[in-house]
Specification:
GO molecular function, one term: ATP binding
Number of helices: 6
Protein name: ATP-binding cassette domain-containing protein
Low-confidence stretches: none
Shape: globular
Bound molecules: adenosine-5'-triphosphate
Number of strands: 10
Order of helices and strands: EEEHEEEEHHHEHEHE
Radius of gyration: 17 Å
Organism: Stakelama flava
Structural class: alpha/beta
Pfam families: ABC_tran
Keywords: ATP-binding, Nucleotide-binding
């Protein structure tokens, strides 16, 4: 299994507990608002510490409460695309993409901007982008850090039907052409059915 996750902790008033194993491909975390989907992604990324549990990704233990293992977020090999695109507003798209891109330049950069259909947006400011364009840039930025896996938090929310279709195609390309395992949060059943190799209900 690519992902082996068993985590729990208190978040505000709520008790969030989530346990699943998933192969590579795309796994959807599916469930109603407040079920703890975003908190689970945060725990996998290392942004929130589980009070108990274990997180293994591709045979690498990222967190184990008993063994006292807690790999810091920047060493987890994670590409995280937050619910909002979170682009730097004072940097053009190209600079946003190069931020934290490490060694990944030249061919990889060209290929990614082509796969995500953002090559024509490189000189634009984030505030001039549509929701779908900003989402694609945010996905590209996450991929440029050369992650072992990708976490997508509601990548299709607050987009119109045409934009949703566009982003779904981008996600399918990342899944199938770039072969990067993806954990994705949604509460839309149709999206989940179309994109997922496995659905985890919370
Ligand atoms: N900063 C916070 N302070 C207090 N409670 C919080 C906080 N963040 C989340 N919670 C609570 O923790 C629970 C899990 O929240 P989480 O955002 O993980 O759920 P979710 O399934 O992602 O929901 P949504 O689909 O609405 O984004 C919810 O009951 C929420 O009210």
């Amino acid at each position: 299994m690519f992902f082996e996750v068993d985590v729990e902790r208190q978040v505000g008033e709520a008790w969030v507990a989530c346990r699943f194993s998933a192969p590579d491909g795309l796994t959807v975390l599916f469930g109603p608002s407040g079920a703890g989907k975003t908190s689970t992604l945060h725990m996998i990324a290392g942004l929130l510490t589980p009070s108990r549990g274990r997180i293994v990704v591709h045979d690498r233990v990222l967190f184990d409460s008993e063994a006292r293992i807690d790999v810091p977020p920047e060493r987890r090999g994670v590409g995280y695309v937050f619910q909002e695109a979170r682009l730097f507003p004072h940097m053009r798209v190209a600079a946003n993409l190069h931020y934290g891109a490490g060694e990944k330049h030249g061919e990889d950069f060209e290929r990614l901007t082509r796969v995500l259909g953002i090559a024509h947006l490189l000189d634009r400011w984030p505030r001039t982008l549509s929701g779908g364009e900003a989402r694609r840039v945010a996905i590209a930025r996450a991929l440029l850090s050369d992650p072992d896996f990708l976490l997508l938090d509601e990548p299709l929310s607050s987009l119109d039907k045409a934009r949703r279709e566009e982003i779904m195609r981008v996600i399918e390309r990342v899944r199938d052409d770039l072969c990067i395992p993806i954990l994705m949060v949604t509460h839309d059943h149709d999206e989940a059915k179309r994109l997922a190799s496995q659905i985890v209900a919370l």
